[in-house]
Write a structure and sequence with these properties.
Helix content is about 75%, strand content about 0%. The protein has about 500 residues and is an all-alpha fold.
Length: about 500
């Protein structure tokens, strides 16, 4: 299949997924905005498919894809279902965090009650400014993510423009040819990005957008949302990890006895963790700066709107590269470092860190908008006052409350961004030099996703499944350990010296 045919298939899948995401995200968003003791478990159930690593999902389902070589239609439908369920949570986040449209849902409903007495032109205008703009962020975000996906498509042997471009670049396609092939997909992505950015700049500020209450919307039941969320969790987490764990446990003995394999795996995993942690810290820091700059109030006057618009434009200029996708960002940086002035950077990890930071920046912003870390709460202010108490015990309690109300959610955001960056394949493949040494080792070290991706194309075996399983377990243990140690460290750093 040619590159343009694969691009057409990607476009069709992304369009259909965007249309289906509109009604499905309504039901899922009702689960996400419920209150009570089930709020956090339901939020984890709804959003967890978005964190499922594409490499592991594709590897887990690749055996089924091989059995369907003579039935490609079944394989295509399975892939479409997986990516739709995986990226639906992003549509839910866009629905909850996007600015409200100029015409509210209640106003649209009231206009429909007028029946034949309303003019068609006015009814069409209200519908476009209300229902259409309300669903635009949902459909746009899901379209972009489905259109950009390639790890699952590659491992399940599904035609996609990203797979063609990635494979052709790894076998030595000239940068000029890569740039020419990339023009059409990038143009399609920006045809979707421009209306999204215009909508967010024109309609409302990020303060109004953050965690807004869902308005009245026809359709979308909680029972349907529960079925979709449970199905997504089973297909994207339980089934792949179950298959990988079963294969990995059978091969644990052969894996542990191969000392060279264990050593190279440890070094590659360490490289991925270091790269992911550094990129996550940078992306989280820049996202905090962006959110603070956009949410800061202008001084009253005629220049208030223009100042807010300028900050909004700068905000979306920083967000746009990451929204265009990891593959586009990495290829653009790869072409840039061919310039003689930037060629010394090719032997460093700076281009990879820069690419991962751009890729993770919009995701860090959206996660913070969703969980509300961008604005200080009343509980956080009271905890800060308690931390200033002269009594040491009350002060320590106040500092722990500060961690629980503010810093803990920032830490959770950093963990999510770290895992996304650590498991990113494109930056590790295109921009990481294979001769970088780590911890004084003379071996050629590459981040773990590159090794896993190369080995996964040769079929499933015990040692490979064990490495894939450890790529989830080890970072999870590290994040749990950091979450256990950081509160005490936070209190020690914040503790004020005792007064004489």
């Amino acid at each position: 299949m040619s590159f343009h045919e694969a691009c057409d298939w990607s476009l069709i899948r992304a369009t259909v997924a965007a249309l289906l995401a509109v009604p499905f995200s309504r039901s899922l968003s009702r689960l996400l905005t419920t209150s009570g003791r089930w709020k956090i478990p339901l939020a984890i159930l709804v959003l967890s498919p978005l964190l499922a690593p594409e490499l592991l999902v594709g590897y887990g389902w690749s055996s089924f894809a091989l059995t369907q070589l003579h039935h490609p239609v079944i394989n295509h439908w399975l892939y479409f279902g997986l990516i739709l369920l995986k990226f639906l949570p992003a549509g839910v986040i866009a629905r909850v965090c996007s600015p409200p449209p100029p015409v509210s849902a209640m106003a649209s409903h009231t206009d429909r009650l007028l029946g034949p007495r309303r003019s068609r032109r006015r009814a069409l205008g209200i519908r476009l400014r209300g229902e259409f703009l309300r669903e635009l962020p949902v459909a746009g975000v899901v379209f972009l993510l489905v259109f950009q996906e390639f790890e699952i498509a590659s491992l399940m042997q599904i035609p996609a423009w990203t797979v063609h471009l990635f494979d052709s670049q790894t076998v030595g396609l000239q940068p000029g040819a890569t740039f020419c092939r990339m023009l059409v997909p990038v143009a399609i992505e920006f045809l979707v990005l421009v209306p999204l950015i215009h909508f967010c700049l024109r309609v409302g500020s990020l303060d109004a957008a953050r965690s807004q209450e869902l308005e009245f919307r026809p359709g979308g039941s909680m029972s349907l949302g529960g079925v979709i969320a449970l199905l997504a969790f089973l297909l994207l987490w339980v089934t792949p990890l179950g298959l990988i764990a079963a294969s990995g446990l059978r091969g644990i003995e052969s894996f542990t006895q191969n000392r060279v394999l264990v050593q190279s795996f440890a070094l590659d995993l360490s490289a991925a963790i270091v790269l992911g942690a550094g990129s996550a810290i940078l992306a989280l820091s820049f996202s905090r700066i962006l959110l603070h700059s956009v949410s800061s109030d202008d001084s009253p006057g005629s220049s208030s709107n223009s100042g807010q618009l300028a900050r909004g434009v700068m905000f979306w200029l920083c967000m746009a590269p990451g929204l265009a996708g990891s593959l586009v960002v990495c290829l653009a940086i790869l072409l840039s470092i061919q310039i003689p002035l930037l060629q010394p950077l090719r032997s460093t990890i700076i281009p990879a860190v820069f690419a991962l930071t751009l890729f993770a920046l919009p995701r860090a912003v959206l996660v913070q908008l969703l969980i509300g870390t961008g604005r200080r709460s009343e509980n956080g202010h009271l905890a800060e006052l308690l931390s200033c108490a002269p009594d040491a015990r009350r002060s320590s309690r106040g500092m722990r409350l500060m961690w629980a109300t503010e810093a803990r959610w920032l830490f959770i955001t950093g963990c999510v961004i770290f895992y996304w960056a650590m498991m990113n394949l494109t930056a590790a493949t295109f921009l990481c030099p294979p001769t970088v040494s780590i911890f004084g080792s003379s071996m050629g070290v590459v981040p773990l996703p590159v090794r896993l991706y190369d080995m996964m194309h040769f079929g499933r075996n015990g040692p490979l499944s064990m490495m894939a399983l450890l790529s989830v377990v080890v970072p999870g243990i590290l994040m749990i350990g950091a979450g256990w140690l950081l509160p005490g460290l936070y209190v020690r750093l914040k503790r004020r010296p005792a007064r004489p």
